[in-house]
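ok here's the first one, seq then struct tokens
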Amino acid sequence: MKRIGILTSGGDSSGMNAAVRAIARSAMNAGLEAYGINYGYKGLVEGNIFKMESHQLDGIIDRGGTILYSARFPEFAEQETQLKGIEQLKKFGIDALVVIGGDGSYHGALKLTKLGFNSIGVPGTIDNDIPGTDFTIGFDTAVNVATEALDRINDTATSHQRVFVVEVMGRGAGDIALWSGIAAGADAIVIPERDYDIKAIADKLTANREHGKDHGLVVVAEGVMSAQDFKEKLDQYGEFDSRAITLGHVQRGGVPTPKDRVLASRFGDYAVRLLLEGKGGLAIGIHDNQLVATDIIDTLENHKHQTDVSLADLNDRLSF
């Protein structure tokens, strides 16, 4: 093995640059060449590929987003397009590809693996919805951003005796809602993985008010419904002077937390070490703070991310 390709795909997440840096520098440290691929799978097929130099990696560990950019490219679902991508990799003499991204990005790596090209997936998504790992790159930063926003909203809720319904990102997973909601002392957290009763939440807010708490905070994962829709349903069961807020893409960007920088560095270095050992077709992850690598085909086709719904039970016991 002489050359490793690196691409980022799908939604950006803080810490992706730290992973790019780790993969490239670990490869260079082992005497290999690292090639960056701009604009994800689209850039791969178009041959937007360049040799990375060490100085290009200076000062990126603390930068949000991705220096390799990203682009939606649904055409990569077609085998003919995938084969064009492999042709480009061979044209540049690239022996293996490391893909940093979420579910869609992983499926691209899965397709390449099935076609015989050695690909490794590194989990980079704020949603934390990738099977085979406890945490993904960018999740911790997104939770920090969401928690800070919820803390600010709580101040206003307290000052004006209002109930705020706040929608956070996460696609079909409720992890951001759970972690930020607990950290902010939310009265209720609503996630796709757990049944909910809007009337019961309204009754809880009413009971809290009767016991002296004249404001409220409800955190809703985007996979459930919009904040506005939830607010309108909630208002049917009480007079809450409620407001709906959607945090949106602010959760994706910004300076990555130290935890995300270290996690990304560990993932990137581990991916290269596995490739040097002749291993591929893998999905990188972390379990009980130990790095793990699972077969990417088995991981995606036979497993699903498991949200820790016991955290919602914990919040129910604490929020009154």
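and now the second one, same deal
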Amino acid sequence: MKRIAVLTSGGDAPGMNAAIRAVVEQGIHHGLEVYGVYYGYRGLVEGDFRLLTLSDVHHNIRRGGTMLYSARYPEFKHKEYQEKAISQLEKFGIDALVVIGGDGSFAGALSLSKLGFPAVGIPGTIDNDIPGTEYTIGFDSAVSVALDAIDKISDTAASHNRTFVVEVMGRHAGDIAIWAGVAAGADAIIIPEEEFLIEDVVRRTEAGRSAGKDYSLVVLAEGAMDVDNFVEQFQILAPDQSVRGVTLSHIQRGGTPTARDRVFATLMGARSVDLLIEGQKAIYLGVREEQLTVFDIVETLEKTEHQVRQDLFQLNQKLTDRGN
């Protein structure tokens, strides 16, 4: 093996650049040339490859986003485009590929592996929604950004005795909502994995007010309900409360990655190079019980249900159920 490549695909996530840096530095350590593929799978098909050096990557460990950029490219699900990508890789003399992204990105890596081209995945998505691993790169940073915003909103909420409904990212996964909600002491956490009644949310906020709280906080994952619709229904049931809705949106995807995201991204990036050298493919690196673990991509993609931390969700439910 003389040359490998690395790409990022799907939504950007803080820590992707740290993983890229680790792939480059570990590759150079092993005497390999490392190429960056720009704009994800589109760049793979179009041959947008550039040789990466230490000077290209060493500053980026502290930057959010992805220095390799990303682009949607649904065409890659077709074998014709996968074969074009392999032709480009062979043209540049590249022997293996590291893919950083979510489950859609992993599906692309698996397709290449099935066609005989070695590819290893690194989970990079703020939603923390890849089955198997307990942690994905970017999740910790996204929670930290969400919590910082919620803390600021809480100051205003308390100053005006208001109820704030804060919508965080999580179309199909409620992990950001759960972690940020528990950390902020939310009166209710609404996630797509669990059914809810707005009447119950109103009851919890009113019980908190009766117990002496000067504001109420609801953390809402975007996949559970639109925040404006939620606020409208809430206000009808609680006309005496002053209710505001806030959508944090894409600020959660940007910004400086946390130490945890940088460290695990570095561990995964370096180990991915080692695995490719060992001849591995169709696998990805994840975390289980705080240890770096290798998972099978096929088995992962076959799992359709996302598991959230039920212990944290139930803890919030118990702490805010004040018997009213």
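notes on #2: The chain has a mean pLDDT of 94. The domain at 3-138+257-288 is CATH 3.40.50.450 (Rossmann fold).
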